[in-house]
Amino acid sequence: MVAAGLWGLLGASSLVLGAVVGLRAPLARRWVALLMAFGSGALISALAYDLAQEAFSTGGTGALATGLAAGALTFFIGNTLIHRSGGHRRGGKVKSPDGNGPAIVLGALLDGIPESVVLGSTLLGGATISISFLAAVFISNVPESLSAAADLRREGHEAGWILRLWVLVALVSGVAAAAGYALLGAMGASVLVPFVQAFAAGAILTLLADTMIPEAFEEGGPLVGLATVFGFALAFLLSNAG
User: Fold this and answer.
1) Pick from 46, 52, 83, 162: CA 20 to 30 A from residue 203's CA?
2) pLDDT digits (tens, 9 = 90+) for 6-65
3) What distance in Å separates the CA atoms of residue 225 and residue 200, rounded to the nearest whole number?
4) Measured distance CA(142)–CA(18) in Å, rounded
5) How distant, in Å, are the alpha carbons of 159, 163, 182, 185, 201 from that of 103?
6) Burial grade of 126 (CB within 10 A; 0-12, 13-18, 19 or more)
């Protein structure tokens, strides 16, 4: 369980890294968008080959279909509530900056917790961590917190407060990975792991289509397509290395 928590914390630690960069050396939005596209491509590969395919192989059509639907609906509903509260996902432009910080953090948790639970569940039964999925999660987290940290700073929040916020999100993700490992191990991994994998795949795919890729294209232009393919190719090669 401790190992699962540490892997989850490692995957989420890039949120803190991105926040530090966003506060100390903020990148142009075009470069953030290209990094976001790269992370999107990596996530597409990871959810296709490390999540959906594995869920289908071990749990069949039922686990895959119900998990995908549950993950997609959960993200859709949560994202709708975030927008209604005045915030936007992935550190995008905001209509009303007042009180946007909690909405951004809630958005990070919404996709970070399922990702972390899946990372923890991959260790069940003595299996090794999925390096390609870990890399995809790590990379995709950076532009989220980088852009959001810069926005929060412009809204008047102190740098220390912003960093503590993202450290808290990373810690929650680590706890989610450990809890996922413990709970799934106790309740029967063979039944629940495929559903959790498909749930995360559905939530992440909805996130990509609804938020990450549109925002990346808006800020990054045509090069976003090439960056997405590059991210997909790298994650695929990592998944099939050796």
Assistant:
1) 162
2) 888 898 899 999 899 888 877 788 888 888 888 889 889 888 887 898 889 888 999 899
3) 24
4) 5
5) 18, 16, 29, 32, 22
6) exposed
